[in-house]
């Protein structure tokens, strides 16, 4: 299944870091999908089964921005 948000292009043109963040996330082996929500308040991932979310969050902070805010959630 493909995830699409038509607002990504104009938002990514204005806020380049969000585009860089999404591309970085998609390169991580633990990430199954990455997408910007709505008009850009959040970039989220769908993690692969048994992926360690904390490892990816720590890696993102180390490689992208130590002030990056992350939150792990589960579907019910």
Notes on the structure:
With 76 residues, the chain is of the alpha+beta class. It has helices at residues 8-14, 16-27, 53-63, and strands at 31-37, 42-47. Strand 1 and strand 2 (42-47) form a beta hairpin. The protein is globular. The two termini are 20 Å apart.
Alpha-carbon Rg, integer = 12 Å
| Count of separate structural domains | 1
Number of strand segments: 2
Order of helices and strands: HHEEH
Question: In DSSP terms, counting alpha (H) and pi (I) runs of 4 or more, how many helices?
Answer: 3
Mean pLDDT equals 95
Measured distance between first and last alpha carbons: 20 Å
Strand content: 15-25%
Q: Which residues sit in consecutive blocks of at least 5 with pLDDT less than 50?
A: none
**Derived structural class:** alpha+beta
As laid out across the biggest beta sheet, the strand order is 1-2
The amount of helix comes to: 25-40%
Please give the largest β-sheet. 2 strands, antiparallel
Shape descriptor:
globular
